[in-house]
Structure to design on (427 residues):
């Protein structure tokens, strides 16, 4: 029995499913989750000291790789001055200044403790600002687990949403409209019919929670257009893509103006953090300036602030993003070539250092239906084969992969070689 198996058995006695976030339980791929002991750079080490080249990178935050010495030093030094005060610190202003400097449409920003809090608060703000209740989201996008967002499409796009989890009141789900990602006509039709009732659109500008799905040309532009016409607020959820697909996220990459941007992951360098920020007129509605309530005992805590500040400084080194993109391209091309040589149908998407592989005959995968039609059984065998070879991929076929600055050319070559070995066994 491996140590991970023993630890998982113990964990299940006291934690539901043995995990504190469901995807970690390996339910999608089967088998026992790998329990991690430590991490460094591109690598994870499990409880049995086995090393893995890691393409999850804590689900995105570790653009620099794990345990970057400067980030760790900053956190250790701050810890000696106290972990949290529940009173303002200069560090919060410094990180806020940095975000407002980098993101052109961010006049004011509020820190929270998770991506879920960021999107939940952004939606409350959009509703408070517009005085409208309905929100629009897209099938396959994930924005955290707040009630309004755990909703799937009803029988018709414009009918009431249906809770996607027990515990979400149907009366609340009524206000959430779920449309198809990359369906420009669907968005136009929805806004033509009920645009004046819609408080906001929330969207992942590159979807990273149904594998990796970039926006088709014109999709994000249409969202901007219908929001301008109807008075709805455009929320770009860049919790995953912010400081990831480029320094200024997907909105910088695709040149789209957001009213509110939600951030997380990278801006805390691996510490729990989130943020929502945007145009002054909207952000001034938040308490204590305005009537829309939002708060947090540990929000803006100094540990998260210093980890974020140090990370943001380091990632602004010249060429870092170009190198990340080049490495991601090399990995994706290498794996696609290996699949082709083994006669395994495989397609990939990538934007910056985010990527995803699809076991499908389709040339292009652009929405949730297509993602769901991929060969999950083959992905699961690929996942376990790669794990055995010492490569840690996200444990579900609907998750994106992430490259870090710490991955070396040798790591990428080793990953491609591992894929070759696994593909040979997959047929
Ligand atoms: N938005 C997006 C785009 C996300 O990917 C996630 C989580 N991966 C969230 C929101 C929720 O963030 P958290 O898990 O920190 O609550």
């Amino acid at each position: 029995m491996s140590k991970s198996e023993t630890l998982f058995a113990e964990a299940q006695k006291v934690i539901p499913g043995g995990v504190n976030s469901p995807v970690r339980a390996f339910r999608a791929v089967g088998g026992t989750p790998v329990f991690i002991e430590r991490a460094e750079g591109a690598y994870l080490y499990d409880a049995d000291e086995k090393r893995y080249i890691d393409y999850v990178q804590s689900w995105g935050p570790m653009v620099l790789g794990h345990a970057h010495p400067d980030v760790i030093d900053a956190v250790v030094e701050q810890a000696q001055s106290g972990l949290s005060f529940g009173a303002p610190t200069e560090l919060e202003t410094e990180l806020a200044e940095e975000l407002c400097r980098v993101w052109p449409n961010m006049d004011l920003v509020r820190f929270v403790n998770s991506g879920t809090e960021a999107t939940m608060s952004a939606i409350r703000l959009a509703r408070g600002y517009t005085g409208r209740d309905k929100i629009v989201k897209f099938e396959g996008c994930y924005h955290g687990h707040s009630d309004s967002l755990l909703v799937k499409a009803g029988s018709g796009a414009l009918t009431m949403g249906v809770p996607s989890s027990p515990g979400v009141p149907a009366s609340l789900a009524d206000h959430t409209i779920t449309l198809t990602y990359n369906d420009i006509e669907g968005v136009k039709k929805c806004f033509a019919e009920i645009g004046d009732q819609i408080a906001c659109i929330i969207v992942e500008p590159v979807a990273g929670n149904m594998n990796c799905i970039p926006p088709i040309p014109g999709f994000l532009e249409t969202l901007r257009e219908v929001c301008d016409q109807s008075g709805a607020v455009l929320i770009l959820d860049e919790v995953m893509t912010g400081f990831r697909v480029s320094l200024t996220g997907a909105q910088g990459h695709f040149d789209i103006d957001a009213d509110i941007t939600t951030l997380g992951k990278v801006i805390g360098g691996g510490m729990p953090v989130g943020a929502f920020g945007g145009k002054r007129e909207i952000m001034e509605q938040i308490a204590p300036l305005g009537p829309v309530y939002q708060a947090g005992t540990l929000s803006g805590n100094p540990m998260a602030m210093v980890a974020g500040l140090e990370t943001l400084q380091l990632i602004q080194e010249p060429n870092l993003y170009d190198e990340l993109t080049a490495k991601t391209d090399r990995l994706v091309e290498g794996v696609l070539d290996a699949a082709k040589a083994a006669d395994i149908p495989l397609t990939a998407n990538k934007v910056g250092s985010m990527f995803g592989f699809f076991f499908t005959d389709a040339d292009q995968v652009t929405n949730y239906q297509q993602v769901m039609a991929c060969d999950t059984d083959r992905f699961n065998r690929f996942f376990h084969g790669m794990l055995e070879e010492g490569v840690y991929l996200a444990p579900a076929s609907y998750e994106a992969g992430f490259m870090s600055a710490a991955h070396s050319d040798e790591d990428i070559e080793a990953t491609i070689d591992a894929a070759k070995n696994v593909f040979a066994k997959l047929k």
